[in-house]
Amino acid sequence: MTTTSDAFPIDDRVGAWVPHGRHLRAGAATGPLAGLRFGVKDLFDVAGWPTGAGNPRWLATHPVPGRSSPLVEQLLAAGATCVGKLLTDELAYSIHGDNAHYGTPLNLAAPGRVPGGSSSGSAAAVAARLVDFALGTDTGGSTRVPASYCGLWGLRPTHGLLSQQGLVPLHPGFDTPTWLAHAAPTFARVGAVLLPPAPPRAWRRAQRWQAAWEQADAVFQAPLQAAWQALQDLGLERDTVPADAFAPDAWRQAYVAAGAREAWQAHGAWITGADPGFAPAVAQRFQFASGVTEAQAQAGRSTQTAVRGQLRDLLGSDGVALVPSAASVAPLRTADPAEVDAVRLRTLRITCLAGLAGLPQVSLPCRTPDGLPIGLSLVGPAGSDAALIALAQRLHARLPAALTGGAG
C-alpha cells in the first residue's frame, strides 16, 4: 500500500521530513520487523518517490527512481512500514545537521542544539519517537555524530558489507549505509535483518586509543572511564595504545584528500552544469574538492592503506577499541561558525579512524551530568558488526544509570 502527503500519518513537529518525502509504503503483513515504522534519509532511492539529496537542484535535475535501494526492500519485506524521506545535509557533505534550503531539524534530546548530520532528519525523527528507526549513511561520521548528539544507537558497518545500490554517493570508498534507533532491542532487530549471518565472536581484548580520547571534551572522560571499567568487568583484558602511536590530524587530512577527490569525480560535472546553490560551507568543501589532484588523492590513499593495516593489526580478530563517538556535545544552533568548524575538525580526527580502516563502529547512548546526550563507541574487526552490537549492548547494560538515563 502506498499513500501520498494527503494522508501522511505523522505530525512532523521537528522538521525532519523533506517536503517531497511525505509518503507511506506499508511493509509485509508479517515478519521480524512487523509493526515498526522507519524513515529513509533522502539519499536512498525508493521506487516512485523522488530522491533529493538535500538540494532542490538535485531534486529538479534527477528522475524519479524506478527501483528501490535493496536495503529498503529488505526492510519492507521484513514487515516494517516506510514513512517517507528524511532530511540530509546537502549531498551529505557535513556532520553538523543544518540545511540552507530545508532548515535544521529540531533535536528534542538536546533542545536548542543541532541534531548533527548529515543524517540529520533520521536522527531527529528517531529522537522524537516519530519513527522506530531510520536509515542513514556514514562517510566521515554522518551517523556516529548524530547518534552522539541525539542519544541514539547507531552503527557504521564494515565498509562494503551493506549494499550501496540506489544510494547517492559522496565518497564511495568511505560511504556506508546505516541505521539509527532509540531502543536497543529495535536496533538489534534491524541489524538481524540487514546484516549477513555471522558466527559468534569471542571477545578477549579491549583497547583505549588514547589519541582519540584526547580529541574529546572533558565531559566525555568520566563516561569513557566507566565504560573502560565495565569492559574489564565483562572479562576483557585491557591495554592502552599511546597517543604517539597515532597521527590524528595527518590521518584526517588523508581522509579529506582521498574523499574529496572521489566527491568531485562523482559530482563535479553536475555541480559545474547545474549551479546547485550550495550553502557556503558545502560550497567551500566542493570548491576544495575540485582542486585536489590525483597525486594528492593517491598520497591520501597510501596513508589510508598504512592506517588500515595498523588498526586492523591492533584489533586482530578478538579485540575492540573504546573511543568517543564525537568530540563534543551537540553545538548550539546559534554557535559561531568558527566554533562549529573547530569541533568538526576534532571530531573528524576521531571518526576518520574507522573510516580509513573500513571497520565497524557502534555508538551507544550516554549522557552528561547536565543530561545532554553523548555517544561512546566500540570499534571492532572487519565483519564483526553483529557481534559488536551484542557486546555494545552488554556494555551499555553495565554502565551506571546516571550515565545512561535508562536509555536502551
UniProtKB/TrEMBL annotation:
Keyword annotations from UniProtKB, A to Z: Hydrolase
UniProt GO molecular function: amidase activity
PANTHER family, alphabetized: AMIDASE 1
Domain Amidase: 25-388
Name of the protein described by the UniProt record: Amidase
EC number(s) per entry: 3.5.1.4
Class of enzymatic activity (EC top level): hydrolase
Organism: Ramlibacter pinisoli
InterPro entries reported for this sequence: Amidase_dom, AS_sf
One Pfam family recorded for the sequence: Amidase
